[in-house]
Write a structure and sequence with these properties.
It contains four helices and five strands. With 130 residues, the chain is of the alpha/beta class. Helix 1 (11-26) links the parallel strand 1 (2-6) and strand 2.
Length: 130
């Protein structure tokens, strides 16, 4: 699972949108779940209708949770927008990228995509003995 925290008014977050759209297209028929968590940074980002409109305009096909009270933000220990996490098939956090994926020439988009592909290649989780 790709889980990313963002705020629609955040320039660094917006700069990650093309990567999320690429992953949405590239992994459409794979066992990859993409989930956006919109955590408002400003008062203008608090309105759920504005979040929905922004996600539609950005062409997000994945669900977006609105974290208006920062409960999820705090539970994950975030300190910056955007933050991108990869969770494996067993539900374990495996990789994390703080900030914009291509900030000042960084290749976080490629690095994270490779990690997604590696996680896809891992065997499925064994059923629990409950």
């Amino acid at each position: 699972m790709d889980l990313h925290f963002y705020a629609f008014g955040c320039r660094n977050c917006i700069n990650n949108y093309p990567t999320y759209l690429d992953w949405q297209r590239r992994f459409r028929d794979k066992d990859v779940v993409i989930l956006g968590i919109h955590t408002p940074e400003t008062a203008a980002e608090q309105e759920s209708a504005a979040v929905k409109t922004n996600a539609e305009n950005a062409q997000f096909e994945f669900p977006v949770l609105i974290d208006g009270t920062k409960a999820n933000w705090n539970a994950w220990g975030n300190s910056m927008w955007p933050s991108v996490y990869l969770v494996d098939k067993r539900g374990y956090l495996r990789h994390f990228w703080p900030g914009e994926l291509q900030w000042q020439g960084a290749t976080g988009d490629q690095w994270m995509r490779k990690r997604i592909e590696e996680l896809l290649a891992e065997p499925a989780a064994a059923p629990s003995a409950d």
